[in-house]
Amino acid sequence: MKIKSHYFPFFIGVLFSLNTTAQSKQVSSPWPEIKNVNKPWARWWWMGNAVDKPNLKSSLIDFQKVGIGGVEITPIYGVKGEENNFIDYLSPKYMDMLNYTIKTADSLGLQVDMVLGTGWPYGGPQVTLPYAATKLVVEKYEVKKDEVFNKEIIANPEKEKIPAQLLAVAAYGADGSYVDLTKQLNGNMLNWKALNTSYTLYAVFAGKTGQQVKRAAPGGKGYTLDHYSEEALNAYVVPFDKALTGFEGKLRAIFNDSFEVYGTDFTPLFLQEFEKRRGYDLKKYLPQLLSKEDSEIGNRVKSDYRETISDLLLNKFDVPWTKWANAKNFKTKLQAHGSPGNLIDLYASADIPECETFGSMPYDIPGFRREIEDIRDGDADPVMLKFSSSAAHISGKPLTSSETFTWLRDHFKTALSQCKPEAEDLLLNGINHIFLHGSTYSPKKAEWPGWKFYASVNFNANNSIWEDAPGLFSYIANCQSLLQAGKPDNGTLLYYPIYDTWGKSLEGNLFFQFKIHSLKEWLHGTPFYETTEKLMEKGYGLDFISDSFIAQATVKDGLIVLPGNSYKTLVVPNCDKMPLATLEKLIALKKAGAKVIFEGLPKSVPGLNDYEAQNQKLANLIASNKMMVEPVSDVFKALAEANEMPETLVNTGLKFIKRDLNGEKIYYLVNHTAKTIEGFIPLTVANKEVLVLDPLTRKTGNAIVQKQEAITMVKVKIESGKSLFLKTENTASEKPWNYYKAQLEPIALTGEWNLTFEKGGPTLPAPAKVSKLDSWTKISPEAEVFSGTATYTLQFDKPKVAAKNWQLNLGDVRESAKIWLNGKYIGPAWSVPFSIELGKLKRRKNELKIQVTNLSANRVRDMEMHGKEWKIFYEINMVDKDYNKFDATKWAPMPSGLKGPVTITPLKNEKN
Question: Could you give a GO molecular-function term held by this entry (predicted)?
Fold first, then answer.
């Protein structure tokens, strides 16, 4: 039988699957089977939608080969000179390409997500002005006593290039009186006489921000959508209802990027929604709402305004958006950060909450490089990351994703070793579905370095890091296979008091967004942040909870039960404002047997409506439940009394997260300290055996344990920069774990290395012999500009030491390596420390082969030094890490190759 060529990948995938299944039946592994959702996924930039089927297929095969599990398609601006190949978004040809992508991906065992639009944020040609992003516009007029106001009211045309819609007019008298003049309008005309006193008139308009879709692709340009209007959303999805007919269930998820809808602080129906939700007419308080002064009434009105914006975004956009997608058998994936609302509730409205990180974080790992000229400081704050994972945990969503590695280093300067600890910090804070940011579709005809998105890092076959990327991707997949298993095992909830932010003047800014890149404005320095940090530092696993999820909580057997999980305790940090209903529910939970711990008590309810009477009720509630809500002076003592114990293993410097798998615990331990951590560490489980799993090598074995009444002591050895998983079990299931220790100091390998350049460009330098290891850029002008892969070969005799195992340490590697010993492939070394176990050595003439791949930076620098232009992209084209014009001619050559020193160390296995 002949197999049609376009079905060939499918059959290969089936055969591979059958072979894998057969092998899995023969060899039982403690590792879960690696599925596509365990693997890292990639945001896939389609530049100008100038895609074709042969290149789509080859790109997807590239993804599958290196261990990527799926792609998220984001169409963006195009490449100059490719205009004839541009494809309009949602056109029949575009949908044909999307359909081909989904089918081909499926044949390769990959899945596909897509953005509901091009670029970001949501918007496009179908967005008419009535449904475009809206802003609050107010014009003021002074009317003296007995003066007649008779004129047309329009927004200032010099400021409002798009005519604004007049919604209401209200008059505020010098004597404190208020008159609603809206019903006296005749169109935009008002004829009214000021009686008894002078008045200030406020005219309220629904203006348009005029914001267009950012980085739009062909066929995707247009206004940004009003994100506070379900009517606007319903109109927006009409083209997708038509285009996606027949795609139901074939796409995995629909994605919505971070809230970068600038200055959109209003919607045409806002005044009606406000009165319905807050219980009073906002027009009566426009002067206080718009005042920049810090006053109690003004701050309360502003709090109500901000809460209403949050309600509308959640209930008029995010929730119906997920409902729309689910009706088509799609999941939703949402980046809620940047939104003007309660991030916990917004993240939880999607099937997959997604956070992001930006820039480079510092680590104490010896040999971890973070050159100041190549980085911008990162903001991967663990507390911020927990908003997304907490939302997933309390709402019962199994996945939390992350936009990962954005601007980790400047273009072409990111090494795989620099990605690993950044990914680990995400995994440690509850993220278990990493998305690379990103990979640019680039056809084979494109001259190197191919098509490239403006924000680094670019994970595709044109980038030299692709050579050893399977090592990073395999590590992530191994970690995520365990971190997606079971359920989260955080025992403590921490109340997030959002009204303390909503109820502030915020330096006169009415509209406030909870941005991930400006944490000082709303998170850092708050009692909530300080309590989170001190609990985490002590080793408590925790999730955040909002007022709305407290309202959903019940109690069973003393546990606080939420839609997604159960918790032993709930801590209320010091806060100024709390809704009366929230405090009533907290007390009810405590009376039902829940462990609710108050660090402080609210002084007031939020908002304006009936607040004085509400405050009295709050005071009475506290007084009548004084013993129940008595603040604690020592939260750690209170947690201990509630039988919630911390993981004191953090005292060693290890970072951790844990999960529960059918009653057994899975611990992920990471060492980002400067030293090896070894010895016995405590786990808060009693009388257990412990299985050790190394996600870098997939080696397993049972640990040496000391069983105690309340804890199990586990022997570990984790070098700086490395990690382990520990899984509790009732009986030992594997052979003992090997605890290797150095018998002697490292022994340097000396002699003459043969260096051969294997692949890369712009040309292959001539082979060389190297007696002293250093950067290959010093060998020749051709080697200085070379980016790619070279092989170092050395012969050496075994030192006169009896050892069954030897550790190879490569020293300083620029930037990743593969190792062979005596013709046998040993494995990769792509992360710090660049070490690997070799096994046994021959007595004479051992041949060590080390294949090293550097970064693409030197080749790009050479291109620009010779005036060769590769930056041929529309719109932002190409910028550096600081968003200045990209200029590689300013760079110095990056050290490349094997710098060493290369050493071997004899190992012995400790038995106890």
Answer: hydrolase activity
Distance CA 206, CA 284 (A): 18
Per-position b or e across 673-702, b if 16+ CB within 10 A of its CB = beeebbeebbbbbeebbbbbbbbbeeebbb
Domain with residue 716: its CATH number is 2.60.40.1180
User: Where a domain ends, among 641, 673, 701?
Assistant: 641
Residue 236's closest CA among 123, 114, 94, 327?
123
Tokens of 562: 């939420």
Q: Give ∠ CA 529-534-538 in degrees, rounded to 5.
A: 145
Q: Can you point out the beta strands (E) in 3-55?
A: 41-47
CA-only gyration radius of the chain, Å: 31
Tokens at 270, concatenated: 């806002």
CA distance 185 to 453: 52
One DSSP character per residue, 730-785 reads SS--SSBPPEEEESSS-EE--SPEEEEEEEEES-PPPPEEESS---GGGT-HHHHT
Q: Among candidates 628, 709, 715, which has minimal Cα distance to 677?
A: 715
> What is the structure's pLDDT at 27?
53
Domain count, the chain: 3
- Taking all residues of the chain, what is their mean pLDDT, rounded to a whole number? 95
Question: Rounded to an integer, what distance in angstroms lies between the CA atom of residue 704 and that of residue 697?
Answer: 20
In sequence order, the 6+-apart residues with CB closer than 8 A to the CB of 810 are: 817, 829, 834, 835, 850, 898, 900, 902
Q: Cβ atoms within 10 A of the Cβ of 155, count?
A: 20
Q: How far apart are CA 734 and CA 109, in angstroms?
A: 31
Q: Give the per-residue pLDDT at 18.
A: 38
Asked if 166 and 188 count as a contact pair (C-beta separation under 8 A), the reply is yes
User: Domain range holding 833?
Assistant: 747-855+894-910
Contact 44, 437 (CB under 8 A): no
**Of residues 64, 29, 38, the one with CA closest to residue 480:** 38
Q: What pLDDT does 894 receive?
A: 98
Backbone φ and ψ of 476, nearest 5°: -60, -45
**275: number of Cβ within 10 Å:** 14
**Cβ neighbourhood burial of 552 (10 Å; 0-12, 13-18, 19+):** middle
Closest CA to 221 of 86, 89, 97: 89
pLDDT digits over 334-353, tens only? 999 999 999 999 999 999 99
CA distances from 715 to 568, 665, 683 (A): 28, 16, 11
Place of tokens 């620029």: 814
* Domain boundary pick from 582, 612, 641: 641
Sign of torsion over alpha carbons 625, 627, 628, 629 = positive
Give CA–CA dist 477/35, Å, rounded: 8
Contacts of 520 (CB under 8 A, 6+ apart): none
Q: Is the pLDDT of residue 16 over 90?
A: no
Coil, strand or helix: which one is 638? Answer: helix
| Residue labelled with tokens 């005071």 | 619
Examine the domain organization and report whether 652 and 621 are in the same domain.
no
Whole-number Å distance between alpha carbons of 592 and 604: 25
Structure tokens at 29: 């592994």
Same domain, 776 and 825: yes
Tell me how far apart the alpha carbons of residues 543 and 388 are, in angstroms, rounded to a whole number: 10
**């799926």: which residue's tokens?**
70
- E strand residue ranges, 311-431: 331-334, 352-358, 401-406
Which of 689, 383, 646, 708 lies closest to 489, judged by CA?
646
pLDDT value, residue 28: 75
Q: 597: burial class by Cβ within 10 Å (0-12, 13-18, 19+)?
A: buried
Q: Please indicate, yes or no, if residue 719 is contained in any of the structural domains.
A: yes
Distance between first and last Cα of the chain: 60
pTM over 0.90: yes
Residue 743 and residue 910: Cα distance in Å, rounded? 11
C-alpha to C-alpha distance for 662 and 767, rounded to whole angstroms: 57
